[in-house]
Amino acid sequence: MNETTLLDGIRQISQQYSSVVVDKNGKPQEVCTRVPVNGEIAVIDALNLVVHPDTFDTHLHQNMINPDLCPDQKRKLATQTAYHIGNVLRLIMGEDFADIHDTNTSRNRYHYTFRIGDTVAPLGLIGIHNFNADNPSILVMIYGEGTHVAETWWEYGLFQWLSSNAIDPRISRCDLAHDDIEGIYSSSELADDADTNGGFALTNKLPQVQHLGDWKRHEGRGRTLQVGSRANGKLYRGYEKGKQLGDPESPWFRHEVELGNKSRIIPLDVLLHPSEYFAGTYPYMAEIAQLAGVNENFCPTRIATIKKDMSISFQKSVTVVKHQFGRYMKVFRDIFKDDSEILEMLVTEKTDYYPKRLKLFEKVIFRPMHWCSFPKVTNTHLTHSPYENVLKEHLYAI
């Protein structure tokens, strides 16, 4: 049986690919990347994961906030945890991911950071902080170079580990990429025309657009069309990949969508179905998926924004309750002095109490420990989610 088709019932999503690009000096250079297989049209090109520190050490959080431990002791704990993470990644993604180095620098809110791989071509980064902030976490970043050299089946292995072993796993960033290496149906001009014709419009408000590179006087250095905003959680980059690598005549064009967890929950399911989520980002990406030739079962999947959907459903539920029971609540207030007494008297005793209209709130406020893509859960398996703060922030703004 074809290796790229099945392994113990697991479908392979991508594989390593090497190509030769001739640079501007006429010298050939080998370029390693990753390409989709088995009807997939997109691959994961970069990934940021956040997990609770108890995933690796049940005492790490408590030790890091212990005032009796000196900085050197805390750094030693962080280093030991980083090595532990490296060993986990080694089993999933390959031997190179166990190569861990302390950078002796801070990044964002992570006080300790550790490079995965060498300095020439790092594969990723591990971030560990002293956990004085709310919602303690550990960051694992996998760079594009890391996904390129990762072992076959790494997506499935990582999905399984996050679903079965990690505590409170979240994807904070995921880059999905499609390469038209021969430039058959992709170019800077075609991407720019798609933007002009509404190919990146999901609402009446058009996303911002930037033209980077030598658009006006094209000399083969490479052009990039950038649509959207990283601050809003979704950014498209279409660029001449071959020219970026130094070949001014290369037709290689890459479509890349960066998804962030700004007002979104990126499901772990994206690891197993990157093409469906890629095609669901923009109408133009769905068109690219069709041009690339996908399998019959392919279905574009869109990740909805939390802010818009939750604000609408919450406001509507308030209107319904006020219309149907508002007068009763007013009378109850005349009878009882404390609103908490009213709430205690009226709340249901059912365990599966979220109405259909507010199901998204259940997914945000409560998340199963081994959450992947919003399965139905009961309260006995729920833990409060850090997304609860996002929820309250948006509701207070209504």
Describe, in plain words, how this protein is organized in 3D.
The longest helix is centred in the C-terminal third of the chain and has 30 residues, at 306-335. Helix 9 (306-335) packs across helix 12. The strands form 3 sheets. The protein has a 10-stranded antiparallel beta sheet with strand order 4-5-6-7-3-8-12-11-10-9. Strands 1-2 form a two-stranded antiparallel sheet. It has a two-stranded antiparallel ribbon with strand order 13-14. It folds into 2 domains: 14-52 and 137-292, no CATH class; 306-396, no CATH class. The chain is built from 12 helices and 14 strands. It starts with 13 loop residues before the first strand and ends with a helix. It is α+β, with helices and mostly antiparallel strands.
Q: Which short descriptors sum up this protein?
A:
398 residues, alpha+beta, disordered C terminus, two-stranded antiparallel sheet, globular, 12 helices, single chain, ten-stranded antiparallel β-sheet, 2 domains, disordered N terminus
Helix-strand layout with pairing:
Elements: E1 14-22, E2 28-36, E3 43-51, H1 60-64, H2 71-93, E4 100-102, E5 112-116, E6 124-128, E7 138-142, H3 144-149, H4 154-164, E8 170-180, H5 188-196, E9 209-213, E10 223-229, E11 234-239, H6 241-244, E12 253-260, H7 274-279, H8 283-292, H9 306-335, H10 339-346, H11 359-365, E13 366-368, E14 382-384, H12 387-396
Antiparallel strand pairs: 1-2, 3-7, 3-8, 4-5, 5-6, 6-7, 8-12, 9-10, 10-11, 11-12, 13-14
